[in-house]
Design a protein that fits this description.
Two copies of one chain form a homodimer. Chain A is α/β, with parallel strands linked by helices and 347 residues long. Chain A is built from twelve helices and eleven strands. In chain A, helix 1 crosses helix 2. At the A-B interface, helix 4, helix 5, strand 2, helix 6 and helix 7 of A face helix 4, helix 5, strand 2, helix 6 and helix 7 of B. The first copy, chain A, binds a DNA duplex (30 and 30 nucleotides) through residues 14-16, 24-28, 30-31, 34, 37, 40-42, 45, 60-70.
Chain lengths: 347, 347
DNA sequence: CATCCCCCCGCAAACGATTGCGCTGCCTCG
DNA sequence: CGAGGCAGCGCAATCGTTTGCGGGGGGATG
């Protein structure tokens, strides 16, 4: 017979209840339940306690435990928007190393809003997270510096902050962009544009700078670099429209990321342009299902899962040994050539 | 001058520190800081306390607060895999109503593994979440019943459990599948298959049943219903291969979800079949970027954000008034016709 | 048989906040 | 001038665990 009135549950059993049921003191019960301290207790007593615990369905109250031990076993993961397919793999990567390491991950979204970011991080801190992994793309604002000064352990993903010795892990944007430009140049393109992400983000700026260097290295013009207001399909589309209107000679574009590239696809459809025959496009990130697009999108694959995993490893390191000097690492990316790039039309 | 040794941070200030700085008792400080109780304190004192708090950078320790008040302001959100594009919108939907409601959301992944699910839920409970939103697809297993008996407040997404009065919100699968079948039948298809999701999931079973009814209503055969082992592209592909081998006459398929439909695309590419000319496909869910596929996938759009938001509203309701009878709601879905469906070839 | 040691276990103090209760002192009113 | 009331604040208990310390009892040893 199941409980007919689940709305009036008996309160959850506490350690006291277990101790009483086993006829011991709470201290003894506590030690018996903790594998680390169990050897201080006679096997017989330990058995009795554990039996009582399981009979009562005892679950330790980790709020109380955290208060006493001042360890929560929790780290915060700050991302802009879970809905961006970029981030779920990062999240899973982080979890894949933190959970076996005994930590749980608390995810918050900031929507790239400074105020929300502050509020969310405050909330995480008041919940006593032991560390932070920050994967938001905003360039340096005082918050990070402030946190660092307060001794908050953290590691950054996809973001560097100038003059701040905080560990960071990022994809090798420079090499990725260079590979993309080289690929297009080798196909014979001479007027290559870059639809950059917002230059207020560290990633947007890095890729734009890398693009400029890459085209210069090939002796190509570096003035075709409109900026998208956001990393979104619609902003990519409007940037592409403007570009086409103002610089009709463009035959290839390196998009700041895959979403921006998708925006280009929309414009092609609008204007009856053919990709890759009329214009080639390269994305960035290699988010899922790009191989099923029309045409399949050539892009730069970034190892997002690894990005997350590596960041998590670095955080574990800094939690273990806080004095370790902050190192930053760059993960290799790779150009994956699909169907959205081809030699320019020769007419 | 920034702190040169962030590895030895001064411990975070406590309410005591604030109280001492303001020259009052902790009780007074507590009341002064809490807007609800602030009127018990003289304006002058309150000001002094608040000033001291902000000077010290005081952040209330919500672990201690939770222990005392036995309220954590946290609810758990249990999903199978954040990487499945289905879930991020649900997550955001949940957050969009819970955060304004004063709650924070803790997300966990189960990977559809029973053991992981149990462990994750245990972890959430030990952290004293006040409610649970469960969006995993496994059919009834004893865990849910157990939780319900223990009086755990929860609401289910995309899942019903038989004989259990737990609120649930789901998409209207029956109507969606019927619309898909009707669309195909109207185009002239007579041999329509269903690549069902795993029948161990509530969704898989519901859609399969709905499909059976729908084809019968149209006087069509109901024996073309292979089951996919998982909701994945690769399992969709193998099911499609088998189907094609055994029932070459099939001209249209209703896939259990979009991923399975994508698996069909892979098989078409392998075998040189044309979609929709040789065979039509309909997906389910309308995950992002389906309009950019080759061909754009016809699918049934499920309002995932709303699913999450509605579930969150129901959870808020049950948290407020636990005795309210559990109601379940069905959200309307809609067929969105794109390029993957057409009349069968007439040869 | 006495001594010592060590194994088990209980005592009690924390962790940082909240909150019912009661005390003080001032103001008001009869 | 005295009594009552109330505003403002402090006292101390409490939430559920963990953990240093000490004590009692049993076994081994001389």
């Amino acid at each position: 017979m199941s409980n007919p009135r689940p709305s009036h549950p008996s309160p959850a059993p506490t350690l006291r209840d277990v101790a009483e049921a086993a006829g011991v003191h709470t201290a003894t019960a506590s030690r018996a339940l903790n594998p680390k301290t169990r050897q201080q207790i006679s096997a017989e007593t330990a058995r009795r306690v554990m039996r009582a615990a399981r009979a009562l369905g005892y679950q330790p109250n980790s709020v109380a435990r955290s208060l006493k031990t001042s360890r929560t076993g929790t780290v915060g993961l700050v991302i802009p928007d879970l809905t961006n397919p970029l981030f779920p793999p990062i999240v899973r990567g982080v979890e894949s190393v933190l959970e076996p390491g005994g930590y749980n991950v608390w995810i918050v979204n900031t929507d790239n809003d400074e105020e929300r970011e502050r509020a969310q991080i405050d909330s995480l801190r008041s919940r006593q997270v032991e560390g932070l992994i920050i994967a938001t793309a905003r360039l340096d604002h005082p918050l990070l510096r402030h946190l660092h000064e307060q001794g908050v352990r953290m590691v950054l993903i996809n973001r560097q902050v100038e003059n701040l010795r905080v560990p960071a892990v990022t994809g090798d944007d420079v090499t990725g962009v260079a590979a993309a430009v080289h690929h297009l140049a080798a196909l014979g393109h001479t007027r290559i544009a870059h639809l950059s992400g917002p230059l207020s983000t560290s990633t947007g700026r890095a890729r734009a700078r890398a693009f400029r260097h890459a085209v210069r290295d090939h002796g190509l013009p570096d003035d075709l670099m409109p900026e998208c207001a956001h990393w979104s399909e619609s902003d990519g589309a409007t940037a592409m429209r403007n570009l086409l209107d103002r610089s009709p000679g463009v035959t290839a574009v390196v998009a700041g990321n895959d979403l921006i590239a998708l925006g280009c696809y929309d414009v092609f459809a609008e204007r009856g342009l053919s990709c890759p025959d009329d214009v080639s496009v390269i994305g960035f990130n290699d988010m899922p299902f790009l191989d099923k697009l029309r045409p399949p999108l050539t892009t730069v694959a970034v190892p997002h899962h690894e990005l997350g995993a590596e960041a998590a490893r670095m955080l574990l390191d800094t939690l273990d040994t806080p004095d370790r000097p902050a190192r930053s690492i760059l993960l290799p990316v790779s150009l994956v050539v699909r169907g959205s790039t081809a030699a320019p039309r020769t007419d």
